Amino acid sequence: MPHSEATRQVDAEVATSLGRVCTVRASWPEPIDSVGTPDRHWLELSLLPHLRAPRGCFPDHWGPHRFERIGALFLLPAGRTVHARSECPVQSSIVCALDPAGMRDWFDNAFAWTDGRLQGGLDLGSATIRRLVFRLGEEVRNPGFASAALVELLTAQVAIELGRHFLGLGETGASGGLAPWRLRRIDERLAEQAEAPSLAELAALCGLSVRQLARGFRASRGCSIGTYLAGHRVDQAKRLLAGADSVKRVAHATGFGSASSFSAAFRRVTGETPRAFRERIGRGAAIIGGSPRIH
Asked: Which of 39, 54, 164, 191 is surrounded by the most beta carbons within 10 Å?
């Protein structure tokens, strides 16, 4: 994301044939309000919660006054001017700066950045892409056997999933899926309250029946809404576990009734307990990423 003067530290970085992947920490002395044009496709997963949702505008396409929500996972297309506003004082992120030339197989000459795709890129709801980027950050931060080959393969998977995601987006979202405003409403509800919503509540927010919501959500995001909600809570928990809060406090913050129910849910999704996850990434030194620098 473009930014004003920032303190920025790259903790780990790996180059691939499609671009570079890095984990970054950044802080800003004042609110961000800046304009930039990335020379690469800038994919970022923010690991710390936003106090207030940042907003983005593509002034060359939308005019100067239309700002849309920027989610925790977003993509800024290469060569598209973006105006970003945020009150986030600190951030840790995983960043994939993808070379447009290397992405031509997935974003070919016939691909157009329509209004729906630009807006969809500001708040990528794909659970698959989110998991892949998070896994990339883990590997870059803590490389293991054949790490370079694994990062290369994971980056290629990210590129393919991005191509699939954006090709499925038009002016109204994926065919048979939910309209972008409905997807935004679901994500805003998740961001605003820690307590998990019921399907009936989300259906009411979207003006749909539970059946219509479930069918449309799967068409839009390639997974059931129950899987998405579980993944969202675990992703939120992972970010909090990177800090100093106890497992009990993280459980409460993510809407679980007890530490034991939280641990069971976390293990079902990740295959490990919250304590094991924290020990693996290193207490206080979790996968660290940052805010994008737009050149």
From this structure: 54
Q: What share of the chain is helix, strand, coil (3-state, %, to 5)?
A: 40, 20, 40
Residue 21 lies in a domain: yes
Do residues 196 and 229 lie in contact, with contact meaning Cβ atoms separated by under 8 Å? yes
The structure's pTM equals: 0.62
CATH of the domain at 62: 2.60.120
Please name the residue ranges forming H helices in 123-146: 127-141
Q: Which two tokens stand for residue 160?
A: 């393919």
Q: Is residue 290 part of a domain?
A: no
- Using CB atoms within 10 A of its CB, is residue 99 exposed (0-12), middle (13-18) or buried (19+)? middle
Q: Hey, is 191 helix, strand or coil?
A: helix
pLDDT of residue 139: 94
Maximum mean pLDDT: which of 19-23, 217-221, 232-236: 19-23
pLDDT value for 238 = 84
What is the domain extent for residue 129? 7-167
State the DSSP H helix or E strand holding residue 57, giving kind and residue range, or none if neither: strand 55-57
Mean pLDDT of the chain: 82
Instruction: Return d(Cα 144, Cα 2) in angstroms, integer.
Output: 32
- pLDDT above 70 as % of the chain: 87
Count of structural domains within the chain: 1
